[in-house]
Design brief:
Its EC number is 1.11.1.5. The chain has 295 residues and is mainly α. It is built from 12 helices and 2 strands; from the N terminus they run H-H-H-H-H-H-H-H-H-H-H-E-E-H. It folds into 2 domains: 109 residues, Cytochrome Bc1 Complex, Chain D, domain 2 (Orthogonal Bundle); 147 residues, Orthogonal Bundle (Cytochrome Bc1 Complex, Chain D, domain 2), CATH 1.10.760. It is globular, with a radius of gyration of 23 Å.
Length: 295
């Protein structure tokens, strides 16, 4: 082989090795920063999202899906879980403040967070007051600014529908007691399955070719600038953080939400972030570029 060709091959091989090493370094850096991939295998994923005391089954998921989309769970019979967490719109509603019972905007001007990947959150609601999805699912149904349906009303409506009674028995056994918490548990079981793996997970799982060079550069900057301090873990968010920036946030005056009793706010997930505008707890910013500058 001519010398020039040998040199070209050697340079190419060296370049490929260098790029591969850089990708490996970035994967390691991302994991050290706390960024965690969604598991590749269903078995490993189920270890994270399933509850041995109330295992996920196809029957429960299908029933939970029907309940999630059913507006009869609201006082008016017009609003379902999907109204504010529209699965065709990134798992939220695409408006700054959630619209609830009586078609009135949320009195605290709170934005609907996406339901996708919410199973990975450390806490639910913007103030983190709910520890898990089964507990969280009870809140919006009863909350006056949202679905405004008392627990007994929801239970009575479900018990008045023979098809639902049959499905609950099929999912939980003939001796099942259909209670409001059981209804919420079933919705939560469906929500647990709303997991959306992405090329980012493939990258963290070892496939260096799933991200473009620009995306890798962005990931490196994301870590270096400290974004991963709050947007971390498998949800790339979902943990309670002190939102000290709230005092500087130029739209802090929109709504009266100030976080929990410590001033902590649940960090929103960055998964599917291009589909979940507007941003921040009060939905005051419409573009990612502006949101990044604000932070």
């Amino acid at each position: 082989m001519p010398i020039k060709k040998l040199i070209s091959v050697a340079v190419l091989a060296t370049s490929i090795t260098a790029v591969s090493a850089h990708a490996d370094d970035l994967m390691d850096k991302a994991k050290k920063a706390g960024l965690t991939p969604i598991p590749e295998s269903t078995t490993e994923l189920m270890k994270l999202i399933d509850d041995p005391k109330d295992p996920i089954t196809d029957a429960k998921v299908e029933l939970g899906k029907k309940l999630f989309f059913d507006p009869r769970l609201s006082r008016s019979g017009l609003i379902s879980c999907n109204t504010c967490h529209n699965l065709a719109m990134g798992g939220d509603d695409g408006v700054p403040a959630a619209i609830g019972h009586g078609w009135v905007a949320n009195p605290h001007h709170l934005n609907s967070p996406t339901v996708y990947n919410s199973v990975f959150y450390a806490a639910q609601f913007w103030d983190g007051r709910s520890p898990h999805l089964s507990d969280q699912a009870q809140g919006p149904i009863q909350a006056v600014p949202e679905m405004a349906a008392p627990a007994n009303l929801v239970k009575e409506r479900i018990l008045s529908i023979p098809a639902y009674i049959a499905e609950f028995k099929g999912a939980y056994g003939n001796d099942v007691e259909i209670t409001f918490p059981k209804i919420a548990d079933t919705i939560a079981t469906f929500e647990k399955t709303l997991v959306t793996p992405s090329p980012f997970d493939d990258f963290l799982n070892g496939d260096e070719n799933t991200l473009t060079n620009a995306e890798k550069k962005g990931l490196n900057t994301f870590i270096d600038k400290g974004c991963s301090s709050c947007h971390t873990g498998i949800a790339i968010g979902g943990t309670m953080q002190p939102f000290a920036q709230a005092a500087k946030y130029k739209f802090a005056h929109i709504g009266d939400f100030k976080g929990d009793e410590r001033g902590f706010v649940k960090t929103p997930t960055l998964r599917n972030i291009t589909e979940t505008a507007p941003y921040f707890h009060n939905g005051a910013i419409w573009t990612l570029e502006e949101a990044i500058k604000e932070m």
